[in-house]
Structure to design on (174 residues):
């Protein structure tokens, strides 16, 4: 059985992950409006991943006998100054999500909820990857600066990102 504190915190995380998906959808729409389909594709995949994360929390609460309580999702930003500004915002958001995950781990320790701690371990590792991915693209965008050909090349590269299930299959050699 899940404690009331842990249940509330995990429900709040469902909302945070759903907002993340919404934010990345907004970023994708912005890139589409700028005719950068590869950047948009990368953000679409990111939105899919965030939705999967919210479902993991949703399923875990139910598995532990808790009650899922979905909340309103706030509207994300819709305008940015540049691709660099978008990825800087994405990194800042991922750092925020990392702090939330770390707080959940702290709560699992305080509540002596070992099952939640094990469940959250995957998210701790995932957040390292999320921050690394956004940070790497930021560094590439800084190298490119105002080079239109550089943006074009990076757009083509980002368009090659595989969806979560396809990426897992490719890694497994399927």
């Amino acid at each position: 059985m899940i404690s009331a504190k842990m249940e509330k915190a995990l429900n709040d995380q469902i909302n945070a992950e759903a907002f993340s998906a919404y934010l990345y959808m907004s970023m994708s729409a912005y890139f589409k409006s700028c005719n950068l389909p590869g950047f948009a594709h990368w953000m679409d995949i990111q939105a899919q991943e965030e939705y999967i994360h919210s479902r993991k929390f949703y399923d875990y609460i139910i598995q532990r006998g808790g009650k899922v309580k979905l909340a309103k999702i706030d509207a994300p930003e819709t305008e940015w100054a540049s691709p660099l500004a978008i990825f800087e915002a994405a990194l800042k958001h991922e750092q925020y999500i990392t702090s939330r995950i770390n707080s959940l781990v702290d709560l699992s320790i305080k509540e002596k909820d070992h099952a939640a701690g094990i469940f959250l371990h995957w998210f701790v590792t995932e957040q390292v990857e999320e921050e690394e991915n956004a940070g790497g693209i930021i560094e590439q965008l800084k190298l490119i600066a105002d080079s239109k050909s550089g943006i074009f090349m990076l757009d083509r590269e980002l368009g090659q990102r595989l969806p979560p299930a396809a990426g897992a299959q490719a890694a497994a050699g399927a």
